[in-house]
Amino acid sequence: MTTSQLPITGIDTHAHIFNRELALAPGRRYSPDYDALAEQYLRMLDSCELSHGVLVQPSFLGTDNSFLLDALRKYPERLRGIAVVAPSICEDELEQLAVAGVVGIRLNLVGQALEDYSGDLWQAFFQRIAGRQWLVEIQRSIDDLAQILPAILSAGVNVVIDHFGLPEDGIDPQQPGHKAFLELLANQQLWLKLSAPYRSRSSAEKAHRMLEVLRAASGGVDRMLWGSDWPHTQFEDKTGYAEQFKRIQALLPDPHDWRKVLRDNPARLFKFANSI
Prior knowledge:
Layout: E1 11-15, H1 38-47, E2 52-56, H2 66-74, E3 79-83, H3 91-100, E4 102-108, H4 120-131, E5 135-139, H5 142-153, E6 158-161, H6 176-184, E7 190-195, H7 204-218, E8 224-227, H8 241-251, H9 255-269
Parallel strand pairs: 1-2, 2-3, 3-4, 4-5, 5-6, 6-7, 7-8
């Protein structure tokens, strides 16, 4: 992995790339009928004066990360990656991912049966991820997160929760599942993405209320990140990159918060730190 020397003006930590010619995973919930290429994504970053981005393997491509890896190798100064892999993956394969610029793995658990993440296979896997100083990124509803997070965090790995935790109707500290999740946010290994509020039908006002609840539970914004979720799969006709960037600008009007969430936090977590 090439350490970027490009000065950091801002980091988008959640985007997907693909083309319609790629083989798709069986059992997928979505099949794209258009291309979303790294070059298009970099133009989106440039349009908002953002310097770096993190590509997240889309679930409909399964564990074939080759398209993502090609982009990381082509643009090593600007991009990092989050891959999807089986927990049985060998060390040589993990090393190949690392060399290309992968810094974490993704568990997209939406619509999936939850597994026992305290089991030997998963624990050994998470410990290997922790040993590489990678992260585990999770997409799952806030209602279920407290059921699975303690076992994963116990392996010593950093965990990133996608999309505000996908709260269906906002975050209610009195709701048992929400309360249990909020109590976990004191753990310094647990990070949050302030991304894709549209996936939980959250208005700008509701997103602001959610941020205040999450900020209080986390003790500030030091473990918060932003992601555009470009190209907004399944919501392509309802939003766009510029709109999502304006949303985060409105959500974080304080320059100190902006610097933390858009620059300092992701630079450290996604291994862009030498560019600061």
